[in-house]
Design a protein that fits this description.
heterodimer; A: alpha+beta; 11 helices; globular; B: five-stranded mixed sheet; 34% helix
């Protein structure tokens, strides 16, 4: 106990046995993806020794698989790599743009969606986008694979459902069918390189007439965890996603938001802006779906 | 605490080193390998002074562990110039006075190389967004942007 170590398993089975061994030995194991949060925390707020278990050599966590029904995105893939995947970008533009919003070119070269979720910040940009597109977290555990809806993964500020012997392998996302599309927007006072004041992800499906048949809305940085907004989805389904419907969805998002006042914004401001973002992201998702 | 043996390639040379598991690549480069061209600014991934290429991907070496370099190809500022002289990008930074104190410059030059390798003809907006993770408190950035544009022109002319 009391030492740092580094392990680089090449498959999930090996990672699980290493995590179990570290746990049994009383060592703290920490999964390492891009390290853009983990290494900063190691030098500031969380300096204790640990065994890093690198997710980036685990084959299953570094795959993108586009199937007929599902898209699988590995937890260990850097945002820049996702952003260069034209097929993924075309299928899930909202998710890719959320990943693309995080940090600089340098950060993009390392940061991952899996790491963003496991860091479990209330302001993690990819979390509302994952919830909106219906992503299910594929968790490897000693008891076998578990599937956890993204909205149930984060349990508080910096905490989540993962046990020390488990790891996040990736995300299983329903392949957008027909006229289905997603979008994510966040607000920051700068043009880039900042942490969300608030964010909103919307995914929706239109029928041939342009009527919305399914919708999912999620908001971020306005509560302890990212929140699904089922009332906003209800406000969109059955409509042409016109201004009135988008306003109703915005009102539902503002009503559900439970933000705090801090240096990034006040409660009143965040509640208002998260509604605006919901409305605008809804319009973008609608236009993308209509173009399909 | 046991050190880890790492085999990597740095600026084309096969390099082996021992490092602590928690030691950053930046600290390994500077303290173990005497490659002090790469600078430490913030050590939190905000300033880009420590930018290097890892398998041709631009990263902050402060946010990468030394052990993660195992099997990778790392390029630092020391690998940009050739034995014949400065790289075009370095020459253009000089000509355009795109540096003052110089601490940010190695990171900017590595980042510029990564940009022009990927996109030989970037517009100004692309340049500014690409370099947003490199902070300079001296120049006001304009001269840097001009140097990048001049580098792109010169490299296109040479090609």
């Amino acid at each position: 106990m009391g030492a740092f170590a580094y392990l680089a398993p090449t498959n999930v089975e090996q990672a699980l046995s290493q995590l179990a061994a570290e746990d049994a030995a009383g060592n703290r194991a920490q999964m390492l993806a891009g390290g853009t949060d983990v290494l900063v925390q190691m030098r500031s707020t969380d300096k204790g020794p640990r065994t890093f278990v690198d997710v980036k050599h685990i084959a299953e966590a570094n795959e993108v698989r586009v199937g007929d029904d599902d898209v699988f995105v590995g937890a260990g893939i850097a945002s820049a790599v996702l952003n260069e995947n034209d097929e993924l970008k075309a299928l899930l533009p909202g998710l890719v743009e959320a990943a693309d919003l995080i940090g600089s070119t340098q950060i993009q070269g390392r940061a991952t969606i899996g790491g963003n979720l496991c860091n479990s910040s209330p302001a993690g940009d990819t979390i509302p986008a994952l919830i909106a597109c219906g992503a299910v977290c594929v968790v490897a555990s000693p008891d076998g694979a578990k599937k956890v809806p993204t909205e149930d993964f984060v349990t508080g500020v910096g905490t989540n459902v993962l046990k020390p012997t488990e790891l996040l392998v990736g995300f299983q996302i329903p392949r957008p069918k027909g006229r289905t599309a997603d979008a994510y927007l966040r607000f920051i006072p700068r043009t880039e390189m900042d942490i969300a004041v608030c964010g909103a992800g919307v995914a929706l499906t239109l029928d041939d007439d342009g009527t919305c048949t399914a919708a999912k809305v999620a908001i971020g940085a306005v509560a302890v965890t990212a929140l699904p907004v089922p009332e906003a989805a209800v406000a969109l389904v059955g409509t042409k996603v016109d201004d009135a419907a988008l306003q109703a969805a915005a009102a539902a998002a503002s009503a559900l938001a439970k933000p705090i006042t801090d240096k990034r914004g006040t409660v009143e401001y965040r509640k208002k802006v998260v509604g605006v973002l919901t409305r605008r992201a809804g319009a973008i998702a609608r236009d993308r779906a209509a173009a399909r | 605490m046991s050190k880890v043996h790492v085999s990597t390639t740095i600026n084309g040379d096969v390099v082996e080193f021992l490092c602590e598991p928690q030691q950053s690549l930046l600290d390994v480069l500077r303290d173990e390998l005497a490659l002090t061209g790469t600078k430490e600014g913030c050590a939190t991934g905000d300033c880009g002074a420590c930018s290097v290429l890892a398998n041709d991907r631009l990263v902050c070496s402060c946010l990468m562990l030394g052990v993660e370099a195992d099997g990778q190809e790392i390029t630092t500022i020391e690998g940009i110039a050739s034995p014949d002289g400065l790289h075009v990008i370095q020459q253009k930074y000089l000509e355009h006075a795109a540096l003052q104190c110089g601490i940010c410059t190695p990171g900017f030059i590595v980042a510029t190389k990564a940009l022009l390798d990927k996109n030989p003809n970037p517009d100004e907006t692309t340049i500014r967004y690409w370099l947003a993770g490199n902070l300079c408190r001296c120049t006001g950035y304009d001269k840097i942007v001009r140097a990048v544009q001049a580098s792109a022109e010169e490299l296109a002319y040479e090609a």
